[in-house]
UniProtKB/TrEMBL annotation:
<comment type="similarity">
    <text>Belongs to the bacterial solute-binding protein 1 family.</text>
</comment>
<dbReference type="Pfam" id="PF01547">
    <property type="entry name" value="SBP_bac_1"/>
</dbReference>
<dbReference type="InterPro" id="IPR006059">
    <property type="entry name" value="SBP"/>
</dbReference>
<protein>
    <submittedName>
        <fullName>Sugar ABC transporter substrate-binding protein</fullName>
    </submittedName>
</protein>
<keyword id="KW-0732">Signal</keyword>
<feature type="signal peptide">
    <location>
        <begin position="1"/>
        <end position="24"/>
    </location>
</feature>
<dbReference type="InterPro" id="IPR050490">
    <property type="entry name" value="Bact_solute-bd_prot1"/>
</dbReference>
<keyword id="KW-0574">Periplasm</keyword>
Amino acid sequence: MRNALTSLTVSALALSLAAGHAMAEDLRFTVWTGNEAHLNMLNGIADGFEAENPGTTVTFETIPAGDYVQKLTFQLAGGNPPDLGWMFEDSMPAFVAAGAVESLTDTLENAEGYDLADFSDPAMGLWREDGEIYGVPFSTSPFMIFYNKDMFDAAGLEDPLTLAEKGEWTLDKFREVVKALTKPEDRIWGFEFKDGQGYDTRIMHAVMPPIRAYGGDAWSNGECGFDDPEAVEAVRMLHEMVFEDKSIVPPGEQGDYFSGSSAMTINQISRASKMPEAGFEWGIAPLPTGPAGEAPVIGQAGLVVFAKSDNKELAKQFIAWMTNQENVEVMAQFFPPARVSVLESDTFTEANALIPPEQMKHVAAAIKEGEVLPSHERAPQILAAMKPRFDALWRADSDVEASLKAVCEAIRPQL
């Protein structure tokens, strides 16, 4: 649904920024999580801010991730804007271009004890434009392999973490074990794309890890990379796993790692909050290596203040509060930090009681070495243009190379 932010919508949003709206009695903060553990943590951080600012109330408003950009855009353009909120990394350039988010530079530079330099330049890259800071990353989260250890043990297979620590966790080994763990008669698959949405809202999350591991990319410097040989080979491997090996949950089927119907999935550590209810022993491991070696892929999410807020200064102060060192340490249990001081401390590796430190060290390593998912000022239009071409790709008889050439033809005008 993020693809619904079309150029027309962005233009309408930009034109509507001057329109007035009713005064908010509190700070409305949009998020895409409805997870109880996440919201309890966020409300705890807000309680501290409210105590420091009597009369202030911070209210977190959940919009599902798949609808987030579309519904947020409608609120901003329709006179019902939140004051601040979470922002996807690939959507940020479009919101900056539309003038929909406020600069945070002065507030962060003047916040007592904030230490803006503690955020590395790579971590801040997507959130700066022309010397101004428009967002602060609260989650710099690499994609990790979640695995069902019970399934690996029952099959007599070494799990991904063991293989990774032996230097044997490669894409070839990944394909081998995914196939071995698939049980069609029991509707058990070896692997499921992120949140089961790899054919829909999570296309980039599905294809970018193997593409990067093969040495390719989606686009760079205005040039499409989907039809480069490295990307073609990576996507061909996925296609064969879906339709020949039948080991990845296919289009139209609903697998669910968290309920035990898939042996592995790819996700970020915020999803560890779902694991206590899973009912099986589990773990996390790095992404498998490919011909290009290790290629961690990172998803980022940031905090922004919306230009139509009537409470801009207070909202900026809350972002400074929420991303100070103390609160970043609190959020680190679910959202890997961009603050170097926290990332390099025992506080981070011990932050999440659900994930052992020996597994969290792989998360920290991936943050330091990884590359953020592709972004672009016209990312919504790019994603909308490529979606039908990827739909055509995910058929058993499709020509992978021709399909990816069609993707490039479709998105080249936007690049």
